[in-house]
Amino acid sequence: MAGHVDSHDHDAHTDSDGHGPAFYIKIWAILLVLFLISVAGPEISHHKAVILVTAFGIAIVKAYMVAVNFMHIKHEKKYIAYIMFAMLGAVFLFYIAVSTDVQMTSGSNWENASAKAVIEQHKDFQEHIEHE
């Protein structure tokens, strides 16, 4: 019977790398605080800029923290990060390419009646709130 050869280096990820339970609890606490800020931001201020910064800015920070700390991106070879950022760039370009068409309520040969109805309903609701 052949012996098992373990090619994985078990000493590569020790507690000195910061991957002990305390490290993960610290990351969880930071993510929890960022979540609470992202929930409280729109409740405290109703300005669109504050809502966008808290929603997207904090989401980007949290995604970075998860990728670096839980997916161990900083311990991977450099080309893995390049591939990941190239993929995110492709997703962003795809979004930019289709968003101009998807977010419209009408086109040359079509009309999105349900979107127009929701917009009108929102306008009526805003007028109702302003008159109170």
Notes on the structure:
- By secondary structure, this protein is mainly alpha-helical.
- It is built from 4 helices and no strands.
- Helices cover 68% and strands 0% of the residues.
- The model has no long low-confidence stretch (mean pLDDT 81).
- It folds into 2 domains: 20-75; 80-132, no CATH class.
- It is flat.
Write the layout of secondary structure elements.
Blueprint: H1 21-44, H2 48-69, H3 78-102, H4 113-131
Beta-strand residue fraction? under 5%
* Cα separation of the termini: 84 Å
Strand element count:
0
Structural class by SSE content:
mainly alpha
Summarize the structure.
The chain is an all-alpha fold.
Key phrases:
flat, 68% helix, 0% strand, single chain, 132 residues, mainly alpha
